[in-house]
Amino acid sequence: MSAPPPPLPSPLPSSRRDWAALLAQLGVRPSKGLGQNFLYERGIVQRMVRSLGIGPDDLVLEIGPGLGILTDELLLRAGEVTAIELDGRLAAHLEQAFAGRPSFRLVRGDALKIATDAVIPPGRPFVVVANLPYAVASAVLRHLLEQPHRPRRMGLMMQKEVVERICAVPPNLSVLAVATQFYARPRPAFDVAPTVFIPPPTVESAVVILDVLPEPPLPNGLHPRFFRVVNAGFRQKRKQVANSLAAELDLPKDDIVAWLTGQGIDPMRRAQTLTVEEWVRLTLAAPVGVTS
Ligand code: SAM
Known about the structure:
By secondary structure, the chain is an alpha/beta fold.
């Protein structure tokens, strides 16, 4: 058996100065609106890809490949990489930089508007890896989790404060934590300092790994009701959950109290103390008025 061919040399720069020069050469002035903080430390992307255990059998979806530092590492480890980039100048650069890589596919467009089934063959397992644009990071996360075709695992670099919110436990849950933990088991992987980006962001970053559940705890048809109940419970966060639900769902307080106590939940608790499992039970036992 002949040895596998050596990996292709990276088409990308290796020093901070050369990454900055590449940006200048492409005429890209990093846009805050598009969350353009580009990594230049290879050690960070190597650690990220290693933490996810990506191998030759994996199909990876990358969101926002930018200049391609993470893409380059993914192409070394994964079987295939599909990447979605919104900025046309970066898309043109990526097409050129990775032109000789048959395992790379670039999709131009807004990741928030693209269904996973439009870019990943239906039914095929895949992993999402991304250094997300911070302004839309939680929206991208929810978009991916709410797709009928969900990734089996995700490794996302985001604002550290958002990672902490996603991984929170009772009594510190939020709608974002409940919505994420309904679909996945998140765990923080490691922190990333602002100094490894061009330009450095004003906030700390962190990587979160999410193991997506094969099935969420409720069938698809009940997801809208689940989110209606959760959103209503959290709308008036400082209030007791019974008061918030009564006000938002426009139901008599007595009915709400009976609903909560029937599920063993003290009506005086606050929304952020309820577990995902308790929200699921409330959804299943919801009174008429919530179900209709
Ligand atoms: N992956 C690169 C890295 O680690 O250096 C770039 C990460 S940068 C934080 C975010 C990237 O997402 C940018 O390339 C930006 O143009 C792109 N982007 C922003 N909004 C996007 C969207 N809605 N859909 C797809 N890509 C987007």
